[in-house]
Design a protein that fits this description.
alanyl aminopeptidase activity, eight-stranded mixed β-sheet, Neutral Protease, domain 2, 31 strands, five-stranded mixed β-sheet, Zincin-like, 6 domains, metalloprotease, alpha+beta, Immunoglobulin-like
């Protein structure tokens, strides 16, 4: 088997040669593309000398010609092997022209230059530019780009690249050209090109300095009417970034292109963002409220990258969170300001706990700033993005908003146009604020999720409350012994009526040692502490709260996040009690009265804040529940969660029906946050009613499906029906398909609904769907909608005892790895926690992992993940 090399942060050194400018010419044809690059090159005399060869990256391309300083080189005068181009002896400064031939139409990896339907487009992050031309494909090589594109004018009337349009014109034989120039230096991963038969919607934005920016969104002609929301989100993001961070857009033109085949959500190429169409196209008939929110967040995220990622970029890929964690934090803050801060925070933390905490405890665990990698694409992870955002949030909390803004201003001032590190960022925050973040740096270099335990001691005679904290982080392959972290704990106190108690020790407590205590004096009897408000640190929290305390916090805490979190802890405790009974084969009895009473109170509160109410009333899903156990009981968790949901539904059915009717009058065209909140509460309660699975309830849900006038309501009812045993399920699925079969993004939803359905069919229905004429492994969205949803959102199906789910997913991984390693690697991570299941499932998952790694020569992407998952068992 091929030996894959590992790159280490400790081995980083500057490039031997700098590129002062690059002029690109693309000659696009149906069966190939010719790419000519003319570079001005200069030796980096700090680390190289006259004997140092020039070595460029190159992959999956043919070298047609090489011209150095006007001299044509023969193949023997340069090296081209092992994905490297080499000139063995070069002068200190010189020009180099390389012409390459590539085949975009055959590029199924969707990295570099490829065809998506009838459109040429690029994806160069992380290391795709080397698939276009020979180049030092690393983020610290920043240069200015110009690009001339020629193509058939009828087939490809739109020719786009980064920066400003310099010139266009017609050529012989029905061809035409466009010349683009980007005045800002950038790394190769930010280069972009698009050529196709596209239309655009246009708008303008006036900046704070009264510059008028042209805004364009390019899509296929039939999708022109679905871009309005994306344009609105873009203008909101531009205004917000000026107000919150003082960042004004720097070019005169900002362009977005939506393509159907894209491995990621979107890409922040300077001035020319390429988006997965999922995050651009939306109408109330075809997109859900979640889709609208997702578009708003992703549009903003890519725009914010213009400063946090483009103007200030990365010295090396180990620093990925410097741009991604920081930009996720920025887009989270934007979405919070545009909608509900509490609801957004809950959604982000729920995602973090379910996904990133799981990542931290698995074989691919790594620090926010990794120390090594085999395949960079594998490190676009929740640790880098979401935990990275939490690290930025903690810095903001520790410094305070004013000093954090001062630190950001200084960061942009010092490093504009440069490639830097996370250390540079943290040092700048220290410089601007005067706050020592020395211990805090461990959040970047130490892997794992800290666990914080809080135990209360009440002294009724002295009126003293002591909170005793302890922190531990389990050892792993990265560090056997973990150091104490700097953990910010936001704390409040509530009296017995739920009123805030003003105490000098309320606010921010800095936990910096393995154990520490915080003493509150002169506090009234029966006060309750509210800790980690707003989820002030990404840690697992254990408390000595009683069930009564949790019910009180769920109903009365003035911090909305902690109200939701108290509800979750109450649900988890009830599930744990029921699971213990299940495993002992004891009767489950009924749902605990305190849980039902707390749910009733939350249902009352939902009238005043429907969005928050919907979050509080939502049970943790089966994956979230499983994350709490070292040994995951698939059937037991499924059984007790269904039991709890049905028990609650029986208790509140009549009240739920009343609220459903109250929230039913929202116009489908209304996508305000208030309207979305009503729909979310209504559809959650419909799902509770549907869980009872009686014929009358099935008729009720089916009626809601037929009455739905928005995609939000239609897909919600269909999802509920898909979990039921009614014949309405088949009718609704068929009706939905026939209605929407010409809209690819809606059909993705149809596949997903069935992929996550928890029935007795195990993997059989998903296997059958993989043979559907509309399913294709060539489209990443379709793969994610069926195979991805099944793997990550249907534990009962994926983990069916006979192993059919494992075999099906492994078959898809093997097939995909030949064409698109990035997507296959995402899927294979579904096996990462195989050691946490029963012996039968362990054996079957291990067998499939070994089959994946031995049945063919796996890609580096897949090999890295599988080898780490199987560590010590091969």
């Amino acid at each position: 088997m091929e030996k894959h090399t590992i790159k280490y942060l400790k081995d980083y050194r500057q490039p031997e040669y700098w590129i002062d400018s690059i002029d690109l010419q693309f000659d696009l044809h149906e069966d190939h593309a010719l790419v000519k690059s003319l570079m001005k090159i200069r030796r980096n005399n700090e680390i190289a000398d006259a004997q140092t060869p020039l070595v460029f990256d190159c992959e999956a391309l043919e070298i047609v010609s090489v011209i150095a300083e006007d001299m044509i080189l023969c193949p023997g005068e340069y090296g081209h092997e092992n994905n490297k181009f080499t000139l063995f002896k070069v002068p200190e400064t010189f020009t180099l022209e390389i012409t390459t031939r590539i085949k975009p139409q055959d590029n199924t990896a969707l990295s570099g230059l490829y065809r998506s339907g009838g459109t040429f487009c690029t994806q160069c992050e992380a290391e795709g530019f080397r698939r276009i031309t020979c180049f030092p494909d690393r983020p610290d090589v920043m240069t200015t780009y110009s690009c001339i594109i020629t193509a058939d004018k009828e087939k490809y009337p739109v020719l786009l690249s980064n920066g400003n349009l310099i010139e266009t014109g017609d050529l012989d034989h029905g061809r035409h050209y466009a010349h683009w120039k980007d005045p800002f230096k950038k790394p190769s991963y930010l280069f972009a090109l698009v050529a196709g038969n596209l239309v655009c919607i246009e708008d303008t934005f006036k900046t704070c300095s009264n510059r008028l920016i042209d805004l364009r969104i390019y899509v296929e002609p039939e999708n022109k009417d679905k871009c309005g929301h994306a344009m609105t989100a873009l203008k909101q993001a531009m205004a917000w970034d000026e107000e919150k961070f003082g960042r004004e857009y720097d070019l005169d033109l900002y362009q977005i292109v939506a393509v159907n085949d894209f491995n990621m959500g979107a890409m922040e190429n300077k001035g020319l963002n390429v988006f997965n169409s999922k995050y651009v196209l939306a109408s109330t008939e075809t997109a859900t409220d979640i889709d609208f929110m997702g578009i708003q967040g992703v549009i903003a995220h890519e725009y914010f990258h213009n400063w946090t990622g483009n103007r200030v970029t990365l010295k090396n890929w180990f620093q990925l969170s410097l741009k991604e964690g920081l930009t996720v934090f920025r887009d989270q803050e934007f979405t919070s300001d545009m909608n509900s801060r509490a609801v957004k925070r809950i959604a982000d933390v729920r995602k973090l706990r379910a996904g990133q905490f799981s990542e931290d405890s698995g074989p691919m665990a790594h620090p926010v700033r990794p120390e090594s990698y085999m395949e960079m694409n594998n490190f676009y992870t929740m640790t880098v993005y979401d935990k990275g955002a939490e690290v930025i949030r903690m810095i903001s909390l520790i410094l305070g908003s004013e000093r954090f803004r001062q630190g950001m201003d200084l960061y942009f001032e010092k490093f504009d146009g440069m490639a830097v590190t996370t250390e540079d960022f943290v040092a700048t925050m220290e410089e601007a604020s005067g706050v020592d973040l020395g211990q805090f740096r461990l959040w970047y270099s130490q892997s794992g999720t800290p666990r914080v335990k809080m135990v209360q001691t009440h002294d009724l005679q002295t009126g003293t409350l002591t909170l005793n904290f302890s922190q531990t982080t389990p050892g792993d392959k990265n560090q056997k012994e973990k150091s104490a972290m700097h953990i910010p704990v936001q704390i409040g106190l509530l009296d017995k009526d739920g009123n805030e108690i003003n105490n000098p020790n309320c606010g921010l407590f800095h936990l910096k040692t393995k154990t520490d205590s915080l003493v509150f004096e002169n506090v009234p009897e029966k006060c309750i502490p509210s800790i980690f408000r707003g989820f002030s640190a990404p840690v697992k929290i254990e408390t000595d709260y009683s069930d009564t305390d949790l019910a009180f916090l769920m109903a009365r805490d003035t911090d909305p996040f902690n109200r939701w979190d108290a509800a979750q802890q109450l649900y988890f405790r009830e599930i744990d009690r029921l699971l213990e009974k299940t495993q002992k084969k004891e009767p489950l009895g009924g749902v605990s009265p305190h849980v039902l009473a707390a749910f009733d109170l939350a249902l009352d509160g939902a009238h005043t804040d429907r969005a928050l109410g919907a979050k509080i009333l939502t049970l943790p899903d089966e994956n979230e529940i499983g994350e709490n156990y070292e040994n995951i009981d698939v059937e037991g968790i499924h059984r007790v969660r269904c039991f709890l949901k049905q028990g609650i539904a029986q208790q509140v059915r009549e009240r739920a029906m009343a609220i459903i009717n109250e929230c039913a009058s929202v116009p489908a065209s209304d996508i305000s946050f208030a309207a979305m909140a009503k729909r979310s509460l209504k559809n959650l309660l419909i799902a509770y009613v549907g869980s009872l699975d009686t014929p009358a309830d099935a008729d009720f849900v089916f009626e809601k499906f037929n009455q739905a006038d928005s995609m939000t309501d239609e897909i919600a009812a269909l999802t509920t029906l898909s979990q039921m045993t009614t014949d309405h399920r088949t009718v609704a699925l068929e009706r939905f398909y026939n209605k929407w079969k010409k809209d690819p993004l809606v059909i993705d939803k149809w596949f997903s609904v069935q992929a996550v359905a928890r029935g007795d069919h195990g993997a059989g229905e998903v296997v059958k769907l993989s043979g559907h004429p509309d399913f294709s492994l060539k489209n990443p969205n379709r793969v994610r909608s069926l195979v991805g949803a099944f793997t990550f959102q249907n534990p009962m199906g994926f983990h069916t005892p006979g192993g059919e789910g494992y075999t099906f997913v492994a078959d898809q991984i093997i097939a995909l790895d030949r064409s698109n390693p990035q997507i296959s690697a995402r899927l294979v991570s579904g096996f990462n926690h195989w050691k946490r299941y029963d012996k039968n499932r362990q054996s079957r998952m291990q067998q499939e992992l070994k089959r994946i790694i031995t049945i063919q020569k796996p890609s580096r992407d897949v090999y890295e993940i599988v080898s780490k998952a199987l560590d010590g068992t091969m």
